[in-house]
Amino acid sequence: MLFNKPKNTGFIEDVWDPRDIWVDELVKGTDEALPEEFLTDDLKFEPQGAYPFCGSFATITAIEHAIKKETGKEVNYSQPHLFFNCGGTKEGSSARGNLSRSKNFGLLDLEELPMPFIKDTTSEWEELKRKAFTKPGTDKILGYVRVGTNKDQLKRAIRDYGVVITGAYAGSSWGNNYWSKNHKRVKSYDTHLIDLVGWDEDGTWDIFDSLQPSGNFNGYHRFHNSYTFNFGYVITAISKDTIDSVNNGRKDPYQTCLDHYGKQRDLAAEIAFANKMYKTFEKYTDKRDLDAAGPWWSILINMGVYAGYNLEYYKWGRWHSGDLINFVVQWRRSGFTQTIFNPNLLRSEHK
Fold first, then answer.
1. Same domain, yes or no: 274 and 216
2. What is the pLDDT of residue 207?
3. Strand (E) positions, the chain?
4. 192, 11 in Cβ contact below 8 A?
5. Which are the contacts of 145, defined by CB distance < 8 A and separation ≥ 6?
6. End of a domain among 235, 258, 274?
7. What is the spatial distance between Cα 26 and Cα 21, in angstroms, rounded to a whole number?
8. Both ends of the chain: CA-CA distance in Å?
9. Does some domain include residue 161?
10. Rounded to the nearest 5°, which phi and psi values hold at 93?
11. Residues 322 and 216 in one domain
12. Does the pLDDT value for residue 31 go beyond 70?
């Protein structure tokens, strides 16, 4: 289960938001073959030290690469400034918190607020926070979008954008194997933010990390090809017109569904069903499925309230996922290409 995980000291899970825009909604999947191996190899390493700044380090690495790729300009932004201004605490920070701050309020040059050279102390922490809050950001990123988490979606995003911000489990028992290419996922939830930057011929994932296991570490290490990732973000320009276009595109094919199948609208029933649906996804499914349900959220509500589709059912004393959960699970696992039902049809109309 990805929910109800213990507290950690680096990554705070994002609050789910159905308004997220996905890469696959901007650029439909291409038939272009993926290379056997790929690596974004020009990233500069900076260690996070004893601070829970992994989210700000992973975000700034992705931003700096995106700017260099687009403009050729070398920039160097302050991780402490981003961390404290995005709501970071001693438990860490969230991916979306760092990204939203970078987009809406801006980043500060590292020279204006560099990383400290000594280990974290309470007085040093408070002084860093004070300085961060008194220095306004300057440069703003133009946008970010979500990435699906099957292997091909992640590989396409790495190939096209260079860096995917994602999470890993780096708990107290991670040990030396965390730095081995044979490192497999120990827990299903994440405690640490990293950058996914490539893959090898055998499918081993290439990681860029702000943790520092040794003095000569350059930021790069690997995970086993079976490692699963729970989410991904990439930096890219995205305008209001693009967002409006994506939202309209979500609606256009499903007008019958969004018109409540010609039935009288019951707003109270929709609200009650939406609350139940969220709790059902949260309780019984992988969080990746809840994330993937976001673009479908209004459609799923109408399918459940007006068209007879179920969320769950019990048979022989056991819980089973119902129509709507299975609909989303298949859609996510297929790489956002296949669905079980046509949302414009009532449940009784499917054979």
1. no
2. 97
3. 10-11, 38-39, 92-93, 144-146, 164-168, 192-199, 205-208, 220-223, 233-235, 312-315, 318-321
4. yes
5. 20, 21, 22, 23, 25, 26, 233, 234, 236, 238
6. 235
7. 8
8. 33
9. yes
10. -150, 165
11. no
12. no
Q: Quick one: tokens of 18?
A: 């159905």
**How much is the mean pLDDT over the chain?**
90
Residue at a domain's end among 189, 214, 235: 235
Residue 3 is predicted with a pLDDT of 41
Task: Give the E-state strand segments of 85-186 in sequence order.
Answer: 92-93, 144-146, 164-168
The enclosing H or E element of 247 equals helix 240-251
**Interior/surface letters 246-277, b for 16+ CB within 10 angstroms, e for the rest:** beeebeeebebbbebbeeeeeeeebeebbeeb
Is a pLDDT exceeding 90 seen at residue 201? yes
pLDDT score at 1: 34
Q: pTM of the full predicted structure?
A: 0.90
Q: Is 307 exposed, middle or buried (0-12, 13-18, 19+ CB in 10 A)?
A: buried
Q: In 3D, which of 95, 60, 83 has the Cα closest to residue 131?
A: 83
Average pLDDT over residues 175-201: 89
Compute the distance between CA of residue 117 and CA of residue 47 in angstroms, rounded to an integer. 10
Model pLDDT for residues 46-58, shown as the tens digit of each residue: 999 889 999 999 9
Structural domain count of the chain: 2
Task: Please tell me whether residue 195 adopts helix, strand or coil conformation.
Answer: strand
